[in-house]
């Protein structure tokens, strides 16, 4: 069984247009530990920092709540994790439509069946999804759906904002990974397939990273659908979710797993720098 070990460094620097007197933020930057993924080491350094508290939220994501009460014009955050990814020995087999439509399943996974403001699909996407609901299994429908949507969309930065909805993405016929994920989630939920948003990291390389090499990486989003078990799909890349996909957390949409959110007292942010790297160490 193959495995891969990464050291991931996520640096964020916020520069303000003047002095900030206080800032309170929540950080979601530490990968989860679960079958197929072990977070061996994790630490978060924040400057300036007055206090912090780490907890697990409703969705199972590790959250660091922190406050900076000293006056500052720059906030620096560095999250470093060592993560080992391994292939699971058995992948859950696809099941039929009856499994996702059972009353117990609908009740238990209701949060992943309900649309959110970000995932509500426009009429054209709803029609595409409904046309695929006669596929033999929910997974077959999902695979056909991501292929169909991918044909219509272009990956392009800057044409959607971080608050974009599925309708916005469809109107522009493009966006980034979170946009592809939101549109796919909405379409799957519309035909009764439970689906959840996955936030994580992925290398920016198209090939396997050699041991000892450090490469650029990025925040990434993909989805998981339930058809007897959770099955991952990457709508942006149309590729398997593999050993370079590192999971930070899951939720209904981006708002449940945003890596950085909060508030501050002072002038607006004038500059935001984000740098993420992978170093393969095993």
The tally of strands reads 14
- List the helices and strands in order: EEEEEEHHHHEHEHEEEEEE
Average pLDDT = 94
Helix content: 10-25%
Distance between the termini: 14 Å
| Form type | globular
Largest sheet: 8 strands, antiparallel
CATH topology of the largest domain: C8orf32 fold
Helical segment count:
6
Number of domains: 2
Structural class: alpha+beta
What would your notes on this structure say?
The chain is an alpha+beta fold. It has 2 domains: 3-87 and 259-280, Sandwich (Immunoglobulin-like); 97-203 and 215-256, C8orf32 fold (Roll). It is 20% helix and 41% strand. The protein has 6 helices and 14 strands. It has helices at residues 97-101, 103-108, 123-131, 138-152, 166-172, 177-190, and strands at residues 3-20, 22-27, 37-47, 51-56, 62-68, 72-86, 154-155, 174-175, 195-203, 214-226, 230-233, 246-251, 260-265, 269-280. Strands 1, 3, 6, 9, 10, 11, 12 and 14 form an 8-stranded antiparallel β-sheet that branches. Helix 3 packs across helix 6 (177-190), helix 4 (138-152) crosses helix 6 and helix 5 packs across helix 6 (177-190). The two termini are 14 Å apart. The mean pLDDT is 94.
């Amino acid at each position: 069984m193959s495995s891969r070990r990464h050291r991931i460094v996520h640096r964020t620097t916020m520069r303000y247009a003047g002095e900030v007197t206080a800032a309170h933020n929540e950080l979601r930057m530490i990968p989860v530990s679960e079958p197929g993924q072990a977070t061996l080491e994790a630490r978060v350094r924040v400057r300036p920092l007055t206090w912090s508290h780490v907890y697990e939220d409703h969705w199972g994501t590790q959250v660091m709540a922190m406050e900076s009460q000293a006056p500052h014009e720059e906030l620096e955050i560095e999250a470093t994790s060592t993560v080992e990814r391994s292939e699971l020995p058995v992948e859950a087999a696809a099941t039929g439509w009856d499994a996702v439509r059972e009353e117990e399943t609908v009740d238990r996974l209701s949060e992943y069946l309900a649309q959110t403001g970000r995932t509500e699909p426009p009429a054209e996407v709803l029609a595409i999804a409904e046309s695929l609901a006669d596929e033999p299994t929910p997974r077959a429908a999902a695979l056909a759906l991501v292929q169909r949507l991918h044909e219509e969309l272009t990956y392009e930065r800057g044409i959607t904002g971080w608050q974009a909805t599925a309708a916005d993405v469809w109107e522009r016929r493009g966006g980034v990974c979170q946009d592809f994920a939101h549109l796919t989630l909405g379409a799957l939920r519309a035909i009764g397939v439970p689906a959840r948003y996955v936030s994580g990291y992925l290398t920016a390389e198209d090939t396997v990273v050699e041991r000892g090499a450090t490469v650029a990486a990025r925040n990434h989003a993909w989805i998981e659908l339930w058809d007897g078990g959770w099955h991952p799909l990457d709508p942006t890349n149309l590729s398997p979710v593999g050993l370079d996909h590192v999971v930070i957390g899951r939720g209904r949409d981006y708002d449940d797993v945003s890596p950085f959110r909060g508030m501050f007292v002072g002038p607006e942010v004038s500059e935001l720098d984000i740098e993420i790297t992978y170093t393969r160490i095993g």
